[in-house]
């Protein structure tokens, strides 16, 4: 082993996996972890069951990281979901795919995943320095000076794998963003992602628990339409949740307007025409009975009529054009003004992070500071629910390790000449 050193800051899935994969590069590897135990967030993932990745082609994967999927293409092609499955099965943890595509350990224990990572680090001679947060990293004459609460040391390469800034109790408190800035890297605006939204003057609290499949949700800001997302939606006590909202939340800000259509595939004009026809054919039936034809939950129909100020006993022939228009608007574009997003203790990921333009997507190395790497959630990458974040952590870790092995290989061959 050479006397060259690699410091990995953060003992989460990205940091530990990078250490394992870089182990045969021949340098001394130390993982600095601020907590007593590594990877607390990994243990919470998938409610402790660890939804480690997702089934499907890489091309489909790339669509699950908001607007930043293309940065991950080299990482996800180099180390794909099936490579991750193979790695764990070769190390004694079998994985299985749920009907919707989520992949979990058969045991449903995140702990089994962590056990492999810790064991392989130990077998590879990686030193894990727990309860040793890195406070500062500086770059001096081609080497990096690492300062922890207990020690200062020079290393030849540094991997920043400190995660994001949500669930701070797990150790992810945004330290990596600060370290990146002091090393000259830009950090794009960070905030909560994979979170529910709280709604101003929310009128649906008594419908909490009712969920809907595949509803189109349109986001407006300052009167302008920003984008539409389709996904499952859940009413909560304070607003909206469900995978459709969680995956969309990276784009949502307080004050935004969300409009939800409860009748996917039908615009207001079409719904109005259908309603006119249904009422004409329904004789003296009540409006709420006619609305049942749209396959909406009865409690939602009552709520929408209540909001529109329409008597629940009103019969079809007595529905005014104005009230019909209000109903159609609520069915096709029900408005929700966002009061706030879930806070750091609720958001499962961080949007924003180390700016991708300054990191080489083929190596995860800084574009202007050779030997400095960023992997995992510290990057401006956040995935949808379904295993996309952990796959990104493992794939970016693998790419950085590959580059470190290459650099060390070159160093060895030039020193032996
Ligand atoms: C409740 C919950 C459930 C989730 N479920 C899933 C899921 O099922 N599937 C999925 O794909 N994703 C899931 N995620 C997201 C996923 O867990 C993260 O994206 C992933 O853990 C990121 O890995 P990472 O190694 O980059 O960072 P982290 O896992 O956050 O690890 C970073 C590590 O760095 C350490 N650290 C931070 N600062 C310092 C410092 N200054 N010095 C030393 N150490 C430091 C931290 O203590 C931590 O151990 C979930 C997240 C949460 C909160």
Task: Give an overview of the whole structure.
By secondary structure, this protein is an alpha+beta fold. It has 2 domains: 5-192 and 346-415, FAD/NAD(P)-binding domain (3-Layer(bba) Sandwich); 196-341, no CATH class. Helix content is 32%, strand content 24%. The protein has 13 helices and 19 strands. The protein has helices at 13-22, 40-44, 58-61, 73-78, 81-90, 110-123, 175-182, 243-248, 268-281, 287-291, 298-308, 321-332, 388-415; strands at 5-9, 28-33, 53-54, 95-97, 102-105, 127-130, 134-140, 143-148, 152-155, 157-160, 187-193, 197-199, 211-221, 224-235, 239-241, 257-260, 334-341, 349-354, 372-374. The strands form 5 sheets. A 6-stranded antiparallel β-barrel has the order 12-15-14-13-16-17. Strand 8 (143-148) and strand 9 (152-155) form a beta hairpin. Helix 1 (13-22) runs parallel beside helix 13 (388-415). The longest helix has 28 residues, at 388-415. The protein is elongated and about 95 Å long. The mean pLDDT is 96. The chain binds flavin-adenine dinucleotide. The site of flavin-adenine dinucleotide (FAD) has 39 residues, from helix 1, strand 2, helix 2 and helix 13.
Concise description?
The protein is of the alpha+beta class and 417 residues long. 32% of the residues lie in helices and 24% in strands.
Count every helix, treating DSSP H or I runs of 4 or more residues as helices: 13
In CATH terms, the superfamily of the largest domain is FAD/NAD(P)-binding domain
- Principal-axis shape equals elongated
Helical amount:
25-40%
CATH architecture of the largest domain: 3-Layer(bba) Sandwich
CATH class of the largest domain: Alpha Beta
How would you write the strand order of the largest sheet?
A: 12-15-14-13-16-17
The N- and C-terminal alpha carbons lie at a distance of 18 Å
The share of residues in extended strands comes to: 15-25%
Q: Round the Cα radius of gyration to an integer and report it.
A: 26 Å
Low-confidence stretches: none
Q: What is the count of distinct domains?
A: 2
Give the rounded overall mean pLDDT.
96
- Kindly state the number of beta strands: 19
